[in-house]
Amino acid sequence: MATIRLVQGDITSESADAIVNAANSSLLGGGGVDGAIHRRGGPAILAECRRLRETDYPAGLPTGQAVASTAGDLNARWVIHTVGPVWSQSEDRSALLASCYRESLRVAGELGASTVVFPAISTGVYGWPMDDGARIAIETVRSFAHVVEEVRFVLFDAHGYRAFETALS
Ligand code: AR6
């Protein structure tokens, strides 16, 4: 069973084998975590994402799936891009959010990554309520974390940190 740790801060300052990106299906960048990762990781990440679009994902990466690229200049070996669901009041998309965590860990395991850093997927631009996003993240990682040694959640602010602390306890 992996150790689960919580950190408050900027995910691009972390060192780990793999850093998970809250991407969109274009894989070509955006705001939030995605923007920060591409800015700090440099152009090698975008170049590899473009190749992934030309080869394996011509229509984009589907919601709930995950794929790895180089981590460029980040203190990591890989960035694992995953696409969270947009929050919906009328439709329960929790299974897709859980799938992001599970698929990212599966990819990490295949790569041989032992430390994996996650942001709170979907809780920014995609509007998922933080408390519920934290609960799904912790529950899913607890059941699938046997493939890695450490899972670290990096929460941008105190509100996110407290939500994950509550979900963990
Ligand atoms: N480090 C850690 N957490 C961060 C950082 C950071 N540097 N920046 C934001 N957060 P978001 P999403 C927090 O919007 O909701 C992009 O445009 C943020 O406060 O990054 O999955 C993509 O291209 C929030 O709690 O991801 C997609 O189009 C959490 O990270 C879309 O946004 C996730 O916020 C994905 O939206």
Describe what this molecule looks like in 3D:
This protein has helices at 32-41, 43-54, 94-111, 130-144, 158-168; strands spanning 3-8, 18-23, 66-70, 78-83, 115-118, 150-155. The protein contains five helices and six strands; from the N terminus they run ββααββαβαβα. The chain has a six-stranded mixed beta sheet with strand order 1-6-5-2-4-3, sandwiched between helices. α4 (130-144) links the parallel β5 (115-118) and β6 (150-155). It is α/β, with parallel strands linked by helices and 169 residues long. Helix content is 39%, strand content 20%. The chain has one domain: Leucine Aminopeptidase, subunit E, domain 1. It binds ligand AR6. The site of ligand AR6 has 24 residues, from β2 and α1. Pfam families: Macro.
Helix content: 25-40%
CATH superfamily: Leucine Aminopeptidase, subunit E, domain 1
End-to-end CA span: 16 Å
Strand order of the largest sheet: 1-6-5-2-4-3
CATH topology name, in short, is Leucine Aminopeptidase, subunit E, domain 1
Compute the average pLDDT: 97
Helix run count = 5
Level-2 CATH architecture: 3-Layer(aba) Sandwich
What hetero molecules are bound to the protein chains?
ligand AR6
The class by helix and strand makeup works out as alpha/beta
Count of all domains: 1
The major pleated sheet works out as: 6 strands, mixed
Quantity of strands, as a count: 6
What is the 3D shape?
A: globular
Q: Which consecutive residue ranges, at least 5 long each, have pLDDT under 50?
A: none
Fraction in beta strands: 15-25%
CA gyration radius, whole angstroms: 14 Å
Protein name: Macro domain-containing protein
Pfam families: Macro
Organism: Mycolicibacterium confluentis
